[in-house]
Structures are given as structure tokens and as C-alpha cells.
Amino acid sequence: MKISKMKNSLFFAGVMALAFAACHEKSRMNVDPIAPDGEDTTTNPPAVVDTTPKPGSGAKNIPLGGNTYVTSGYGAVNSKGLSSWVDAVFSSYFKVNYAGNLSLFLNYTTPESGFGTPGSSVIDVELGEAPAEGKPFTPTKTFRVTLPKTPEGKDSIVFIGKLDRCELGYKRINFKGVSKGGSEFYASLKTLIVEGKSTLGMSYSRSDRRNSPSVHMSYPYPSTDVAAWFYNEVTVPDGMDHPASYFMVNGFTGGYFGIQPSRKDKHVRVLFSVWSEFSTDNPESVPDSLRVPCLSKGTGVTHQMFGGEGSGTQTFYNAPGWKTGATYKFITNIYPSQDIGFTDYKAVDYVGYIFDPAAGEWKLVSWLRRRTNNLTYYRSAYSFVENFSGESGNLMRKACFGNQWIYTKGGEWKELLTGQFSTDATGSSGERQDYKGGVTEDGKFFLQNGGFFSDNATPGDKFTRPATGTPPDIDFDHLARLKEEGKANVQQQK
Q: If residue 280 lies in a helix (H) or strand (E), which one and from where to where?
């Protein structure tokens, strides 16, 4: 009996010992082990996971230098982006051609010049539809974004925000400063990075050129109609005569004839130019035998050589009393020269006249002679609207062209009722799609560009205006007298 009780006691003690050992081991498993180098890792907090969205490999980079305009205050837009930012409101544009989600990021750098000690900038980023011409911008979403100080000379990318659905059409993004972070300038902004379904087919400029697309309207007529004269009229609606606008009314093979309005001085510069047959951008390199002489010109008209876009002779004068809504009439006479005065080349003469509504009379601009073996009458009648400076490429321009007629070599007036629309490489590439052409309600062709409107025309579209049936009332004998009288003005400038 004693031996049996002793065995039972030893068995019970062994079980208890095993149970205690197991319990002790289980409690040790709930404690982080000691690091191999002796450091107790229980004192180190777990790593923080950065959940901030970052652009992926499919994101698009929109260069701000080619798609942004200063719409208020002072700041600079150049090939590097947006800089020297004091109090400007920068407005950037892109067109969504596929509705869907869109994430926005910003590539920036801390300013390296200016007074103060640069720190973190804070800006507001406003997003909304591009407003109609003359209407205020109303943002539909505003993000307040902090731009942390970057290492000297280094770029950084910050997340702006996300849109669950971005609808079709042109969008405008305003960058507005909140705090410069101790610096004279805000951070310099380089590119807007976009990602999401709405980037499919997105339209924006890939270059630094901020000009709106040039738009053209040609007026075809049968090749059997030998046109000696082309007549056209232009009317610029109120508010569409922005700086850096050229409304070319009577275009032709070898030159152009149109107006540049000046809001500041309330005048319009009338330009009539003809290219030399010699191909060069340097007018001084044109041989004397191929220069374009000015044979006659109106009072106050300047004639000079030009270059940079080919070379030739340009004539112009400033007509006072410019008014939007007024109709300016143009007529151009082109014909092979009769009295050429030299034998190595033949020539074609170009004569431009404008009816100034302020003066109430026709005025000779100039009579120019192009020395060429390609003898011809008027060819390729067309008009265009151009924005020749990118600083104002965000502004809308529009011109209406009416009552187109040719006067043939045989002495017959013929009305031109068809217009064919086209645009330049800026438009045809799809980078800018704010271009348009058509027929107005009162029966005139029109051309429109800039302003980031979304209902664009299609290059190649043909339009038909209603016929007037009444030819222009032109006193050709009076125009011939102006041409002869203007010869003395050429001698006076010499």
C-alpha cells in the first residue's frame, strides 16, 4: 500500500511539472524574442506604410509651360513651367475626350532664387469646366495642397486629389497661392501629372507654343474662271479683337491682305504683303533681281522688306477709328505684269485696296511686283484668323466674312458661295481642339479659335452661304487713279 501511494504521488508530481513547463513556454511565446545583437525589439514601433497615391507608369505628364496662362497677378510661364510666382493665378487647360475617373499629381521644386528662406508652399488647386468667353470661372472642386520643401535643385511629386468622374470637354485648373513658406516666391510648378480613364485621348499641348490654332476658310471656284480681282468683307464681333490677332481677309498664292486691330490705340493696322520667289528667311540674301519692289502706295503707307517666314515686301498703315462690329471691305487685283522693265524674269503684279468705313472711301494700300516665271492671275482665295503670340492664346477670336466675289479677266462678276474649313498643325495634331468655322445666322462665313470651347469643327468641312445676288459696286476707274497717284508716295519714302 505504501509503495503504491508513493508511485501515485511521483506520477502526480511529474504531471504537474510538465504542465508548469508547458505553461511557462506558452507565456514566453507571447513576448517578442531578443534580437540577435541583444537589442530588445519590443521598444521599436512598427514601420509606417505610406498610403499616399503615386502616379503609375501609365500616367500622362502635361507640361504646364505649354498649357498655362497668367490670368491674374504676377508670375512667369516659360519652357520650364511656372515660376517667379508672387501673387499670380495660373490657369491651365486640357480637354477630356473620354469620361471617367482622374487622379491629379503635381511635379514641382522649391524656388532657388528670391529673398527669404524657402520652406513649404501651400496652394489651392481649383478644377472646373473651361468657362464660355466673357464668363467667370466657377470651380467644381478645390484641393488645398502643401508642397514640402525639396532638396536643392531636386523635383518632387505631390498628390493633389482624385475625381470619381470627369465629364467630356475642356477643363480649367487654377493654381492659387495661399502661403509662400518664408520665401519671396511660391514653389515652381513643372508638370501636371494625370492618371485614370479620362486620360484616354486627352488633348493638350506637347510643346511650349501656347498660340491658339490658326483657322482658315477657302473659297473655291472653277479653274476655268480666270479671276483678276477678289472681293471680300470682314466684320469682327465685339470682344473678339484681342491683342496678337490677325484677321486675314484676302489671301492668295504668294501673299496675304488683312488687319491687326489694336485695342490700346483704337486703330487697325492694315497689312498687305507679297513673298519673294527666292526661298529664304533672311531678306538681305534675296538677289536684287528677285526682290519685290513697291511701285505705288497710299498716303501714310510704309513699305519694307520682311523675313522670318520666308522673305518679301510688306506694306502697312494704321487706320484710325477701329470699331468692332463695323464691316471692312477688301478688293485685290492680281495679273501678269505688262511693263516688266527687265528680261531675265517675268513678273506678276499685286494691288490691294481697302474701304475704310471711318473715312467712307476706298484707299490704296500698295502695288507690289513679284518677279517670277509663273505668270498667273488671282489664285487660292481664302481667309484666316491667327493668334501670333502665345501669351494670349487662351482668348477667343472670331471674324465673319461675307459677300465673296471674283471679277474675271473677261469682265464678269461671279459670286462664291462655298467655304471649306481647315486648321494648322496645332489643331490638326489634336493638341488644341478649340477651333471652329461655319455660317452665321445672317449668312456670313465665320472663323473662330481660342478660348478652349469644346464644340469644334472638322477640318475639311464645307459650308454654303446664301447668295446675295448683288455684285459689289466698284468704280474700277477710281481705283486705277489711286494706283497712279500713289507712285509719288514711293519716291517720298526713298
A: none
Q: Tell me the CA end-to-end span of the chain in Å, nearest whole number.
A: 147
Q: Specify the 3-state DSSP secondary structure of 230.
A: strand
3-state SS, 85-109, equals CCCCEEEEEEEECCCEEEEEEEEEE
**Alpha carbons 282 and 279: distance in angstroms, whole number:** 9
Q: CA–CA separation, 348 vs 374, rounded Å?
A: 8
- In contact, 185 and 397? CB cutoff 8 Å: no
Enclosing H/E stretch for 479 = helix 476-485
Calculate mean pLDDT across residues 437-461.
96
pLDDT digit string, tens, across residues 126-161: 999 999 988 999 999 999 999 999 988 799 999 999
Residue 24 has pLDDT above 70, yes or no: no
| Cell numbers placing 254 | 504668294
Spatial distance between the Cα atoms of 330 and 352, rounded to a whole number of angstroms: 8
| 82 φ/ψ angles, rounded to the nearest 5 degrees | -110, 120
pLDDT beyond 70 at 271: yes
- Which distant-in-sequence residues (6+ apart) come within 8 Å of 9 by Cβ? none
In angstroms, the Cα distances linking 444 to 385, 400, 440, 441, 463 are 15, 6, 5, 8, 10
Q: What is the Cβ-side half-sphere exposure of residue 32, based on CA atoms within 13 angstroms?
A: 12
Asked if 268 and 241 touch (Cβ cutoff 8 Å), the reply is no
DSSP assignment of 161-229? EEEEEE-SEEEEEEEEEEE-TTBSSPPEEEEEEEESGGGTT-B--SSS--PPPPEEEE----TTS-EEE
Beta-bridged to residue 402, according to DSSP, are 233
- Strands of 3-88, DSSP E: 60-63, 68-72, 76-78, 81-83
Domain chopping of the chain, boundaries: 60-199, 215-493
The C-alpha cell of 11 is what? Answer: 506520477
CA atoms within 13 A on the CB side of 417: 10
Helix (H) or strand (E) holding 127: strand 121-129
Q: Looking at the domain that runs over 60-199, which CATH code has it been given?
A: 2.60.120.260
* 331/352 Cα distance (integer angstroms): 6
| Contact assessment for residue 318 and residue 356, using Cβ atoms and an 8 Å cutoff | no
The C-alpha atoms of residue 465 and residue 461 are separated, in whole angstroms, by 13
307 has pLDDT over 90: yes
**Distance (Å, rounded) from C-alpha 401 to C-alpha 327?**
9
Q: How far apart are CA 4 and CA 347, in angstroms?
A: 139
**Cell 508672387 maps to which residue?**
86
**β-bridge partners, 362:** 355
